[in-house]
Amino acid sequence: MLDDAGVEAVFERFATADPDPDWSPKGPRDPFKTLVGVVLSARTQGVNTEKAARQLFALADTPGALAALPLPEIAARIVPAGLYNQKAKGLKAMAEALVRDHGGRVPGTREGLMDLPGVGRKSADIVLRFALRHPVCAVDTHVFRVSRRLGLAASPTPDKVADELARRTPERFGMGAHLWLFRHGRDVCRGRRPRCVACLLEDLCEKNGVRDAV
Q1: Please, which residues have CB within 8 angstroms of residue 23's CB and are 6 or more apart in sequence?
Q2: Residue 16 host element (H or E)
Q3: For 134, left (φ over 0), alpha (ψ -120 to 50), or beta?
Q4: Cβ count within 10 A of residue 142
Q5: Are 165 and 182 in contact, with CB atoms under 8 Å apart?
Q6: Rounded to whole angstroms, how far apart are CA atoms 129 and 127?
Q7: Is there a contact between 40 and 81 (Cβ–Cβ < 8 Å)?
Q8: Residue pLDDT, tens place only, 148-193
Q9: 108 neighbors 83 (Cβ within 8 angstroms)
Q10: pTM of the entire structure?
């Protein structure tokens, strides 16, 4: 495990290379649409998620409107995302819970979000980070892998890694941590054949579990 100075150095280097990771021409995200997008994104690619979301939001872009839709109509709109019958049931149950228990508003806490049907820790943290602007690091496959390889965390599960990152990430890097780690895992520290020769953290990395670097 990296010590506190090592953790600081990792995030300082990320921040120097990418000082504004959060910039987007799309502006602020809608919490409900973000939550729906997270549900749709399971086991599919981003382009499919976006297409399914566009088709669904053209018909229902609020919890009340989605809760009122028949299941077959929801499923038909989200076919591009795959597992559409399963996801349709989850989306309808989630929308109904928002209307019934929260007045049609998305909860602003992790606990409140995770009380919704089908919403786990990662999904809740994505909504908190991107729609509600909380400095949390959602741990997906990329963030989990990179955090353990670098030595930022050592826990065996994504939720426990998320807890470690919450404790160990310096406060001033809280808003950037997820995007830096996610993009690094996607582009450089890949699951297979990580590009260590192109890594800006090569001299800091513990290379835990790395066997086939290029």
Answers
A1: none
A2: helix 4-17
A3: beta
A4: 19
A5: no
A6: 5
A7: yes
A8: 999 999 999 999 999 999 999 999 999 999 999 999 999 999 999 9
A9: no
A10: 0.92
Q: For domain 4-22+137-198, give its CATH number from 1.10.10.10, 1.10.1670.10, 1.10.10.350, 3.40.50.1820.
A: 1.10.1670.10
Known catalytic residues are: 122, 140
Whole-number Cα distances in Å, 38 to 50, 118, 122: 10, 10, 9
Domain boundaries 31-131, corresponding CATH code:
1.10.340.30
- In one letter, which amino acid is 83? L
Looking at residue 82, the DSSP 8-state letter turns out to be S
Q: How is the chain split into domains, by residue range?
A: 4-22+137-198, 31-131
Which of 84-97 are b and which e, b meaning 16 or more Cβ less than 10 Å from the residue's Cβ?
Answer: beebbebbbebbbb
CA–CA dist 213, 201 (Å, integer)? 14
Residue 203 to residue 160: CA distance in whole angstroms: 26
d(CA 169, CA 183): 17
Taking only the tens place, the pLDDT of each residue in 67-109 is 999 999 999 999 999 999 999 999 999 999 999 999 999 999 9
In one letter, which amino acid is 112?
A: G
Which among 199, 175, 176, 177 has a CA at the least distance from the CA of 187?
A: 199
Q: How many CA atoms lie within 13 A of 186 on its CB side?
A: 7
What is the C-alpha to C-alpha distance for residues 48 and 53, in angstroms, rounded to an integer? 8
What letter would DSSP give residue 130? I
Whose tokens are 């049609």? That residue is 104
